[in-house]
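Minutes, project check-in

Agenda point 3 was the complex the collaborators sent over. CS summarized: two entities, 466 residues total, and the question is how they sit relative to each other. Sequences were read into the notes so everyone works from the same version.
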Amino acid sequence: MYGDLAMKLAQDARRVQTLESLPAYQVDLVASIVREIRDLNRDFNILLKKQGPDYDPRRHGEASCALFILQLCVQRNKRSLLAYHRLRAKRIEELAWAGVDAASAGEENSGSGNANSSSGAGGTRGSTSLTAGWHPDEDEYFRGFSDVLAELKGEWTDIDLVGPMDPPRDLFIDVRVLKDAGDIQTEYGMISLTRNSQFYVRQADVERLIQQGYLLKMS
Amino acid sequence: MATDDRDAEIDDLIDNLDRDYRFRSGAPTAQRPGSSKTREYEKEQDFAKLVRLWISERTCPDILPYDEQLMNSLTDRLREQVEFIEMATADPEVASQSKLKLLLVESELERIKFLVRGYVRARLHKIDKYYMYLSTDDSDVRQKLSVAEQRFVVRRATQLKRLYDQRFLSNFKSTPKIQRLDDNSPILQMVDQPDLDDVIFIRVLKDIPGEVVINKEDSIELRKGNIYVLPYITIRKFIAAGEVEFV
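CS then shared the predicted structure for the full assembly.
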């Protein structure tokens, strides 16, 4: 029945909301819905042509009803497609805001890219990468959006646009190193961040490292 | 009696001066050059303004006009402070002497940064949400945004449109109607708009003559100093005039 496929896609979108990373992109489903829209649209045009030049929706109730239903189905399918893609795009944007590196995210995905395109909706289960379920076009979107954000950040270099949204309490904080992060230069000298060590440092100096998960802020 | 009257008069004068300061942003420097006291005063005023702006932007359902002048003077001053800190820490002798002072300057700096960041991000959040609505040619809507924000709207719209095109929209080239993203028929509104009927908390700064109509049945009198919860649209013009503020 018309709209069934779109329903499936909407359900998938709903499932996405509760998942931590995006599940595999529904290539086949999207393609089928696109096909359905085109079929419906063709039917619509044929039916409209059949009515001839002096078609009056008020007098030809039966035909205008059929036309209306066809149009509704097209609209509904389109809306489902938009909702599905918008939802995924939103998740991708969140990653870009969180400062996930565009280059590394792309690389990670190129490894699983083949599997992704061949198995289509089957998915690439078992991959831990955040970007494993992405469609290549979504990779591109991520890079594009990261560029847009980078430009915005450039506009606001003084305030660190993606910095913490909690009000600052202390200039200096205790951090524990979760992953080796190499040496960093601060105005109080060099600190070498080796795993499991603990430091008392200026928050502004290590903010980025906390976001990237190298350091843990101790409370 | 006579002294009471004079006191009231003086209070009024001070009130007026204060209000002048609040509304004539930036102008005082040109008229009273150099005086460090007015500069201090301005700085305090700017800070108070920033806090107001931050609260307003976070509570207002619509996007408020961007305060470019304030933002520019604030970022300039931020830079000055950073330079000051750098200069002071570069010289070990000065640094050891004024460690506490530097710490205070730095803490203050972080606080201002937090407020500015909060303000900008609150705006961006709304701008991002209503980007379709903001990409109109309506100049009234557009001029609320800074140049950078306008560019952001355009660029993010292009990016998302491209994703849609690549994934499915380009398949419907023969029927432009299906490709449209901005259908605004009453049955199906595709463009998300700020909800102007959203209720907000406000404080009245100035008695407002007459009654404010809320809907067909209700209207209300706004008295100075009181706090009300009202739909944004009913008090929008008083916000713009500075007679009412967000809480």
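Noted in discussion: The domain at 4-155 of chain A is CATH 1.20.58.1030 (Methane Monooxygenase Hydroxylase; Chain G, domain 1).
Follow-up: revisit at the next meeting once the mutant set is ready.
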